[in-house]
């Protein structure tokens, strides 16, 4: 890979790049920077986390003449968070060269933005709606724009910004460069490119070349009504530095954030119905680390780049593969390893399979940690905290006197146990592990036997039954136990630990086209 200084950039820009801590260009940057410097229109396609911002940002900043107090470049981005983030990265790279950047987005006072625009900024980064608003008011002029960028173009189209984008285009001068960046290339984007770009150079970074660090992708099978408990067990057994949790709906996000707070986690919610100020407050707290778990909807979390996000957790499974890819791209930023955990309920197994198929990758199944494992891990954390406090050797006057008195009368070991019990017992009270009690089903030891209301009459054969269970409940075919198929019903045994999930996944499903009903067998059904 050629180094940054092979691009003949202004030394001030090189300084900005060094200040960012970038050592060498990422693959998309190596190809984009020279093409943009040559004046070409560029379409850049690469996954999240590949450094697209600097790929357009560096040549764009190189192009700016800071002595001209005119808007010379504009960037359109799908969300306010993203506009702010891009603006911040450009501001940092462009600082030595004294390039002024400004993010504009809905939700912030327009008066304040007008004032800021009047100061004379060189690069404006905005969401399409607000950008258009300023253009129509005449508070922003694009007559001198030389480079226009559409960042996360697929997201903008998804969010219905196409009309706004085209309206903004009308304000651009005839002579300008257009750059388009996107993680995916749906037809709408190709169309946009055809309409507005001149002989665009198409630059793509294929999977193999992506410098993005490894994101470990794991899924957990959970039951709908035990989902929150399952999540907490996962959180308690993982080393989560900072995590983004995805929920399907705004209400779901609020509920989950509250439930986590109630259980003592440092959590905060983020979604589109919140006032801008509130969103900023949450984001800042998350950046500072005051919030460890950010619970967000897809839209609110788009483009968020916080370096320490160690985990992305899909509390609700994403709607499609594209959303999955965007979500997990929030971790493993800037060269760090990341974990992407997906919770899957029985009804969502099909969705998981379809996502896997589309991304061409399989998620690793992982067992939920048992209560004992969680307790063990919490004991470990507690032991570390105690040791740390002892090693600090700071006086703890509040308790020193009472301990002095008590040690005179009691065994210090027993006293420590009693003290810990008083302080922490409620942390370790074991919950109830079993959501289902199937009772006596006449199964072999360690198994649960289910009754199925169809048999040979629906052409059911053992192989199909095993396949249906393995696929729909995500268990290995060889784990399925004894099978008996009769004329009008069947029996099947599955391992105890898999039984609740199998039950929920198959209690109402189709096997071989036949609608089936599955219920725990009663021993008297046995023949
Ligand atoms: P994308 O837009 O492709 O999702 P970003 O532009 O947001 O990716 O970059 C992802 C992260 O990688 C950011 O934290 C960014 O600062 C960092 N980054 C970008 N280019 C480089 C580079 N050449 N070397 C190291 N880190 C980089
Ligand atoms: Mg980006």
Briefly summarize what is shown.
The chain has 527 residues and is of the alpha/beta class.
Characterise the protein shown here.
With 527 residues, this protein is of the alpha/beta class. It folds into four domains: 4-209, P-loop containing nucleotide triphosphate hydrolases (Rossmann fold), CATH 3.40.50; 212-370, Rossmann fold, CATH 3.40.50; 372-429, no CATH class; 447-525, RRM (RNA recognition motif) domain (Alpha-Beta Plaits, 2-Layer Sandwich). The protein has 20 helices and 19 strands. The chain has helices spanning 11-20, 27-37, 52-63, 80-94, 110-118, 128-137, 153-158, 162-169, 187-196, 227-237, 250-262, 276-288, 298-301, 321-328, 349-359, 371-392, 397-409, 412-428, 462-473, 499-506, and strands at residues 42-45, 73-76, 101-104, 123-126, 147-150, 177-182, 201-204, 215-221, 242-246, 267-270, 293-296, 309-314, 338-344, 364-365, 447-452, 483-485, 490-495, 508-511, 514-520. The strands form three sheets. It has a seven-stranded parallel sheet with strand order 3-4-2-5-6-1-7, sandwiched between helices. A seven-stranded parallel sheet has the order 10-11-9-12-13-8-14, with helices on both faces. A hairpin with a 4-residue loop joins strand 16 and strand 17 (490-495). Helix 3 (52-63) crosses helix 4 (80-94). The longest helix has 22 residues, at 371-392. It is globular and about 85 Å long. The relative contact order is 0.08. Residues 52-53, 151-152, 303 line the site of magnesium ion (MG).
């Amino acid at each position: 890979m050629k180094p940054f200084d092979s691009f003949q950039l202004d030394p001030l820009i090189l300084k900005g790049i060094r200040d960012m801590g970038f050592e060498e260009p990422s693959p998309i940057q190596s190809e984009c920077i020279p093409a943009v410097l040559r004046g070409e229109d560029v379409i850049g396609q690469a996954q999240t986390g590949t450094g697209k911002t600097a790929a357009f940002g560096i040549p764009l900043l190189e192009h700016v003449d800071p002595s001209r107090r005119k808007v010379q470049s504009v960037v359109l981005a799908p969300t306010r968070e993203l506009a702010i983030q891009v603006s911040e990265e450009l501001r940092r790279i462009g600082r030595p060269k004294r390039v002024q950047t400004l993010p504009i987005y809905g939700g912030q006072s327009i008066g304040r933005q007008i004032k800021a625009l009047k100061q004379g900024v060189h690069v404006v980064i905005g969401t399409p709606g607000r950008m258009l608003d300023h253009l129509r008011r005449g508070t922003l002029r694009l007559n001198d724009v030389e480079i226009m960028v559409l960042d996360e173009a697929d997201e903008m189209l998804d969010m219905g910004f196409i009309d706004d984008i085209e309206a903004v285009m009308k304000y651009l001068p005839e002579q300008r460069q257009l750059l388009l960046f996107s993680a995916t290339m749906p037809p709408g984007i190709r169309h946009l490119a055809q309409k507005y770009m001149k002989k665009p150079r198409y630059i793509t970074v294929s999977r193999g070349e992506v410098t993005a660090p490894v994101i470990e992708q794991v899924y957990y099978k959970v039951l709908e009504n035990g989902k929150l408990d399952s999540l907490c067990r996962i959180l308690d057994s993982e080393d989560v530095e900072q995590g983004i949790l995805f929920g399907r709906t705004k209400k779901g996000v609020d509920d989950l954030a509250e439930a986590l707070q109630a259980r003592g986690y440092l959590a905060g919610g983020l979604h589109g119905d919140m006032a801008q100020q509130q969103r900023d407050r949450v984001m800042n707290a998350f950046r500072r680390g005051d919030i460890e778990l950010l619970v967000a909807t897809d839209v609110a979390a788009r483009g968020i780049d916080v370096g320490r996000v160690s985990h992305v957790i899909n509390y609700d499974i994403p709607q499609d593969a594209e959303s999955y890819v965007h979500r997990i791209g929030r971790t493993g930023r800037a060269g760090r390893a990341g974990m992407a955990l997906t919770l899957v309920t029985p009804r969502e197994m099909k969705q998981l399979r379809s996502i896997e198929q589309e991304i061409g990758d399989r998620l690793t199944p992982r067992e939920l940690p048992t209560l004992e494992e969680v307790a063990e891990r919490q004991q470990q954390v507690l032991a570390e905290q105690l040791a740390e406090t002892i090693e600090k050797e700071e006086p703890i006057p509040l308790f020193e006197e009472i301990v002095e008195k008590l040690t005179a009368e009691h065994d210090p070991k027993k006293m420590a146990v009693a003290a810990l019990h008083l302080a922490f017992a409620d942390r370790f009270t074991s919950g109830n592990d079993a959501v289902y009690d199937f009772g006596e089903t006449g199964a072999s030891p360690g198994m649960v036997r289910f009754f199925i209301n169809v048999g040979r009459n629906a052409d059911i054969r053992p192989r199909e039954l095993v396949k249906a269970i393995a696929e729909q409940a995500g268990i290995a075919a060889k784990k399925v136990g004894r099978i008996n198929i009769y004329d009008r019903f069947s029996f099947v045994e599955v391992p105890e630990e898999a039984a609740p999930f199998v039950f929920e996944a198959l209690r109402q499903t189709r096997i071989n086209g036949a609608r089936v009903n599955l219920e725990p067998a009663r021993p008297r059904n046995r023949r």
